Amino acid sequence: MNSSSSSVVGVRPTDSEAAADDDHDQMTAEQKEAKLNEWFAVTGSRNGNWLFSVFHNVTALVGAGVLGLPYAMAQLGWGPGTTILVLSWIITFFTLWQMVEMHEAIPGRRFNRYHELGQYAFGERLGLWIVVPQQLMVQVGTNIVYMVTGGKSLQKFYTSVWAPQPAGGKPIRTTYFIMIFGAVQLLLSHIPSFNDIAGVSIIAAIMSLSYSTIAWVASAKKGVQPDASYQPVASTGTGRAFGFMAALGDVAFAYAAHSVVLEIQATIKSTPEKPSKGPMLKGSTFAYIIVALCYFPVSIVGYYVFGNSVQDNILISLEKPRWLIAIANIFVFIHVVGSYQVFAVPVFDMLETYLVKTMKFKPSRRLRYTTRYIYVGVTMLIGMTFPFFGGLLSFFGGFAFAPTTYFIPCVMWLIIFKPKRFSLSWTVNWLCIILGVLLTILAPIGALRLIVIQSKSYKLFS
């Protein structure tokens, strides 16, 4: 009995048994990974569809940037301004299509996050260093700008509906309105995953189309102003050059959705028969049509009506009718509430993934809420400290948005698909890369000058 037992205990597993054990262990690991993915913000749900794609993309694309486009036109002038707007629309739609195609460039594998695609294209370590800093600058930068935009829009709504300041008192500080916006974001940060904010995106997308329409229709109704001039804004050559460069950043900021495209596509179910790129491309195409309906009328009509006297936020130039401007500003507030979340969720996902996978924290509500509260608080504090709307648009637009939108997708496309040299695909991609690099270099220069000028009249936490 003992010998029999010892022989059984001492029996070495066969290769097939060892393989079965390995498969079991592997399945367990896969199950754990799947369970973990259900907890993360980006991969928590795959129930998205092309309509969700439309709303998420519109919410990400049409934001604070559209309000600054007439001012960008004033800096660029009719010819260059119109050309750059149209070219940007074409180039960014092309690079968006590339991102959608590359999401499942490898059969059986999905690149759910921008940095995952970057790691595949550039290598595990280099891909992280190239993509993650750029993506974070886009998303965090956008959230900071939207903190400022949301607070100022709420302030504008308040002053439009009620008296400009309390009777016998001082005006309510912009800081307090930014804090209100931040408080709303703290509440929305409880929403666990990207797909779960679809309702917020739907409302935000409707708001963006609404206030864009109000902006250009109200401008058209106001008529060309007597002092409207289409001469350069700056009187000196240096001023015009810096203004031109800053305006390039404004245009780049208006096309910011690429940093969240793969994360949006990750919410859509994909099978070999029906890959996710079908509904994603359909949704993105509809979104870009809506973008054109928002951007071009606001830019052209706004500049035509106000000329070079237009403000860096078109709604500031539109003072009357007071009730309509109040509605437009509250629409902006509601929209950037949703848009903040669209850009924040991938950051939440990145932070939570790092804490759980690298730092070995246990996935929990406490971890999720603590991480998100800290992030919202930091962006709110920075927004209150540096509320330079125009300068921030230009700086982040050029320094961060241009790479992730205009040329990094093209570089990855060339690496992954290797089109033949001097073919149409190769040529178009290199043209986009050259234009994108120029935009990245020039726009921040003009933006920094604008921030310096605006900061001279600024008081901390005013």
List the keywords.
462 residues, mainly alpha, amino acid transmembrane transporter activity, Amino acid/polyamine transporter I
Characterise this structure:
The protein has a single domain (45-456), classed as Up-down Bundle (Amino acid/polyamine transporter I). The termini are far apart. With 462 residues, the protein is mainly α. It has helices at 2-9, 15-39, 50-61, 64-76, 78-102, 114-122, 124-161, 174-188, 198-222, 237-253, 258-265, 277-306, 314-317, 322-358, 365-385, 389-417, 424-455. Residues 1-28 are annotated as: Disordered. Its main location: membrane. The chain crosses the membrane at residues 50-72, 78-100, 174-191, 197-218, 286-306, 326-351, 372-389, 395-416, 428-452. GO terms for molecular function: amino acid transmembrane transporter activity.
Task: Give the structure's gist in a few sentences.
It is built from 17 helices and no strands. It has 462 residues and is mostly helical.
Secondary structure topology:
Elements lengths: L1 H8 L5 H25 L10 H12 L2 H13 L1 H25 L11 H9 L1 H38 L12 H15 L9 H25 L14 H17 L4 H8 L11 H30 L7 H4 L4 H37 L6 H21 L3 H29 L6 H32 L7
Helix pairs in contact: 3-9, 3-11, 3-12, 4-5, 4-10, 4-12, 5-11, 5-12, 5-16, 6-7, 6-16, 7-8, 7-14, 7-15, 7-16, 8-14, 8-15, 9-12, 9-14, 10-16, 10-17, 16-17
Pfam families: Aa_trans
Subcellular location: Cell membrane
Family: Belongs to the amino acid/polyamine transporter 2 family. Amino acid/auxin permease (AAAP) (TC 2.A.18.2) subfamily.
